[in-house]
Amino acid sequence: MKFTAALEATGLRLDPATARPVGGGCIHAAWRVDGPDGPLFLKTHAATGAWMLAAEADGLAALAAAGCLRVPEVRGQGVTGDAAWLALEWLELRAPSESADAALGAALARQHLAGGPHFGWHSDNALGATLQPNTPNANWSEFFAAHRLGWQLELGARNGFPRRLLAAGERLRDGLPALLASRQVEPALLHGDLWSGNRAADPAGRPVVFDPAVHYGDPECDLAMALLFGGFSPAFFAAYDAVLAPAPGRTERLRLYQLYHVLNHANLFGSGYLRQAQALIDALT
To answer: Could you tell me the residue range of the domain that residue 32 belongs to?
Structure first.
């Protein structure tokens, strides 16, 4: 797919001569393009990836509507011919300070306290390039077993994961009702993919998040991802806990929720993550 085709498909008033590639992840191409109303951040993909960009637009709109976290405004999204695209507000982003991380932690906790109607989402979406099933369910352990851990194990079986890992993972999945029995949790609106690379600060030092995989789930899922690869300051977690105090058993549940992301990385990027996944399963069983 040519960039000019995607640019024309947006229907926005943008000057192709100003387009320059920018960092935007490993899945889509990303561009800064100027127009009479200022610059835009434009993601493009072949039409086969339109579902991912539509899910991203939906997630950003949901986070914006919740009113707790700053996200780039969605300016348009669609697909024309072989060109899929997502146009977002251009933000001058920079590395977050400790105070920005603290503000993000407090804001995230407030969002989690707002609650939601059920676990899951009104549609399936994407975690990276992986389909993320979101069939609504009133029971958290059932939802996580079927649509998070069970789904990743199913993908792993297709991708040739070791039998020992799959068997242990299935035992863990079947034991989730007991493992989560003490967790009486209300659905919370999650960012869903809150690693350090999906947050930044604006020129005023205020936190910004992007690239979500939203759904309603256990609030601790966002904390698990924030911890998994590092990069957040201790101020983030302290500020979060000051608003939403830790519940008993959180450490074990964080490992469980991290397992979902580690399995997803193994399914996306290969065997380098299998040892980490096996270690998490062994620690939980």
So the answer is: 3-89
Compute how many other C-beta atoms are within 10 angstroms of the C-beta atom of residue 33.
22
Based on the fold, state whether residues 84 and 149 are members of the same structural domain: no
- The residues annotated with a catalytic role in the active site are 193
Q: 130 and 26: one domain?
A: no
Please give the Cα distance from 10 to 12 (Å, whole number): 5
Do 129 and 171 belong to one domain?
Answer: yes
Taking only the tens of pLDDT, the chain with its 285 residues reads: 456 666 776 777 788 888 888 887 678 889 899 988 889 999 988 899 999 999 999 999 999 999 999 999 999 999 877 888 999 999 999 999 999 999 999 999 999 999 999 999 999 999 999 999 999 999 999 999 999 999 999 999 999 999 999 999 999 999 999 999 999 999 999 999 999 999 999 999 999 999 999 999 999 999 999 999 999 999 999 999 999 999 999 999 999 999 999 999 999 998 899 999 999 999 999
Indicate the SS3 state at residue 48: helix
Six-digit token string for 174: 């079947």
Quick one: 212 exposed, middle or buried, by C-beta within 10 A (0-12, 13-18, 19+)? buried
Q: How many domains does the chain have?
A: 2
Say which CATH number the domain at 40 has: 3.30.200.20
What are the tokens at 124? 């399936």
Residues 123 and 230 in one domain: yes
